[in-house]
Write a structure and sequence with these properties.
The structure is a single chain. The protein is of the alpha+beta class. The chain folds into three domains: 332 residues, no CATH class; 145 residues, no CATH class; 100 residues. 59% of the residues lie in helices and 11% in strands. It is built from 23 helices and ten strands. The strands form two sheets. Strands 2, 3, 4, 5, 6 and 7 form a six-stranded antiparallel sheet that branches. The chain has a four-stranded antiparallel sheet with strand order 1-10-9-8.
Length: 638
């Protein structure tokens, strides 16, 4: 039975390579006669990969432990919801899921109106690049990362899913990341194809919705991963600059830089090579993220280790970069228009983009520092969170300031609504003073938080002063994204530096104090399920002498895992959130407890929700874009 999904992938590999070869032959001859055959082949490949994916999902549903992958990531007691989402819990399954998304994206793009705007030769070259990426995935899945290996005799039960992954955040986090990674394949391949052919239609416009959607999903995946870490790891934070966290952040930074340079590229017909390079680099960095997670080159809390794909991924990334360099060097010349000064809006957009790229380079070098330092020492050491905070936080604060100012600067320079900008400057200063009076004294915290609040004020003033913004859906989308980022700025600026953490050892009836809260340990409760035994410490929370609720942090011992698992509990608040971690306990029910306060942390998640929902308002229709042809960019998108 398991031979069917494997040979479906093998057939998909052969058909993808054959279709790519046909496209290369057609490109060489300058023809497109066989293009319909290639397009039909893509539909067949999509069907084959979907069949394989369904087989793996079905194997998890029926608990088919004769499949090695299923036996490693599920067991008889695992709930159905987690059992099905274990599809992407391991290396091979997550690689299949990513490959399936790439194939589906290519097939969906095939049926869009924007695809048919492309000239025939541009479509031929697009499929050359896209089928190359697709074939690479099929190669990995039929060789290094085959998810359909059998074991005989089949075990009666599986090893079970890692308890850390049994959380809604880790159900949503990987798929959203992979949708982002897969979505960038379309614009990257379009960029190379249209640069070669000199396509009359802007590839940036044709790929706009794909780029925006991929960016939104990647942002959502990163923040959901932070939310999972905050609630599941028990160390009281949402970001630790872990190599795997950095791996997904780096392509997000490069894609964010591209979104800003793309505005200049469309409005001024400038930065042609820069935009192509940034888009392709984003796709390469998505593969780099996979390399970090799957090669074993970097130690991390939730990396997969060496799965045999490190070298293929490295060679494939190098191949893409070489091809991109050749395309940009030997492609037809473009007459880019000169840019206005740095004081113009386009200048500020370019500055913003390069700050994002600078942060990306810093994070990349810091992540690979253990590998780089091996060149001169036998005991390489990684860089801690302090390094990243010292170097990147000032850069992010500058980005925040630019986001406040940029919408008030005209496209070719000069200020619009000068009085409004003066009012905004006064509001910004007043916000900083208010924060200082209320005890926010750290320079980066006060500047970052005031910038976030000033962004909110800036958006409100702009919508009051410019009625045209209120009539454009894309303006709501672009400025809505900035509103979400502003709230995240506020949450990050305050929650990290001003977190308070207190450890205590308590017997039943004893209390501890953390800031304005009194925490009283009531009792230890214990219960069991077929999957685990749960130990929960009941805590009574009082503030100013008034009981305001209870918390019950847990230690769980799973049947299939030796080490106990921590389950934190929080008291939700838009101000100061209380966070409880049960570190351990004795047979006499004496507990070791860690309590922390997390000021404004939930504004990070609220900002992310706004970005992911409102960001889709910036999706463009062909009809809507047609009215803007040969005009300056929509100011809202800047």
């Amino acid at each position: 039975m398991h031979i069917i999904p494997y040979f479906s992938l093998l057939a998909a590999l052969i058909l993808s390579l054959l279709a790519a070869a046909v496209c290369l032959h057609q490109a060489w001859e300058g023809r497109s006669r066989w293009l319909p055959w290639v397009e039909n082949a893509q539909i067949v490949v999509c069907t084959l990969v979907t069949i394989s994916s369904f087989f793996l999902l079905w194997a998890f549903y029926v608990k088919d432990f004769s499949l090695l992958y299923v036996s490693r990531y599920s067991d008889l007691t695992l709930p159905l919801f987690y059992r099905l989402t274990a599809f992407w819990a391991g290396q091979a399954g997550s690689m299949l899921f990513w490959a399936w998304l790439v194939v589906v994206c290519g097939t969906i793009f095939l049926f869009t109106k924007r695809y048919h705007l492309l000239g025939a030769q541009s479509r031929v070259f697009f499929w050359i690049f896209f089928l190359g990426v697709q074939s690479f995935f099929m190669y990995l899945l039929t060789g290094h990362q085959n998810p359909f290996l059998e074991i005989s005799p089949a075990p009666l039960d599986g090893q079970g899913l890692n308890p850390l992954l049994q959380h809604p955040g880790m159900i949503i986090h990987p798929p959203t990341l992979f949708i982002g990674y897969a979505g960038f394949t379309i614009p990257a391949c379009l960029a190379l194809a249209c640069w070669i052919t000199g396509e009359k239609h802007s590839w940036i416009e044709i790929a706009h919705n794909w780029t925006l959607t991929a960016w939104i999903f990647l942002a959502a995946g990163i923040i959901i991963g932070g939310w999972w870490a905050y609630l599941e790891l028990g160390w009281g934070g949402y970001w630790a600059w872990d190599p795997v966290e950095n791996a997904s952040l780096i392509p997000w930074l490069s894609s964010t830089a591209f979104l800003h340079t793309a505005i200049v590229g469309q409005g001024r017909k400038a930065l042609g090579k820069t935009n192509v390079l940034l888009m392709v680099l984003t796709l390469v960095l998505c593969f780099m993220a996979t390399y970090l997670v799957r090669s074993g080159v970097i130690d991390s809390l939730h990396a997969f280790g060496d799965g045999g794909v490190g070298n293929p991924l490295m060679f494939f990334m190098m191949f893409i970069l070489v091809v991109t360099a050749l395309v940009l060097f030997f492609g037809p010349a473009r007459d880019d228009r000169p840019l206005s000064g740095l004081g113009s809006r386009q200048g500020l957009l370019v500055i913003t983009a390069w700050i994002f790229m600078t942060v990306g380079v810093v994070v990349l070098l810091g992540t690979f520092w253990p590998v780089i330092s091996k060149l001169w020492t036998e005991n390489p050491m990684g860089l801690d969170a302090g390094f990243y905070n010292r170097v990147t936080l000032p850069l992010f604060v500058v980005v925040g300031a630019l986001l406040v100012v940029c919408p008030w600067i005209q496209w070719r320079g000069g200020v619009r609504f000068g009085k409004g900008l003066a009012v905004l400057a006064g509001i910004w200063l007043a916000l900083g003073v208010v924060l200082w009076i209320n005890g926010i004294r750290l320079p980066m915290a006060v500047v970052g938080a005031s910038a976030g609040l000033a962004m909110v004020a800036s958006l409100i003033l702009l919508f009051i002063l410019d009625p045209s913004l209120r009539r454009r859906r894309t303006a709501w989308g672009a400025h809505g994204v900035h509103l979400g980022i502003a709230l995240m700025f506020l949450g990050v600026a305050i929650s990290g530096p001003y977190k308070v953490e207190v450890d205590a050892v308590l017997a039943p009836g004893e209390s501890m104090v953390i800031q304005d809260f009194t925490v009283t340990y009531l009792e230890m409760e214990t219960w069991s399920t077929p999957a685990m035994t749960v130990y929960a410490a009941r805590l009574e929370i009082a503030r100013d002498g008034q009981v305001i609720g209870e918390l019950a942090p847990q230690r769980r011992v799973y049947r299939t895992w030796d080490r106990p698992h921590t389950k934190v509990d929080t008291r939700f608040s838009l101000g100061v959130e209380l966070y409880a971690t049960l570190l351990g306990f004795t047979q006499e029910d004496i507990i070791s407890l860690r309590m922390s306060t997390q000021p404004l942390v939930n504004w990070i998640w609220i900002g992310c929700i706004i970005i992911c929902v409102v960001g889709f308002f910036a999706v463009r229709t062909l009809k809507g874009r047609a009215r803007d042809v040969d005009t300056e960019p929509d100011p809202a998108t800047a």
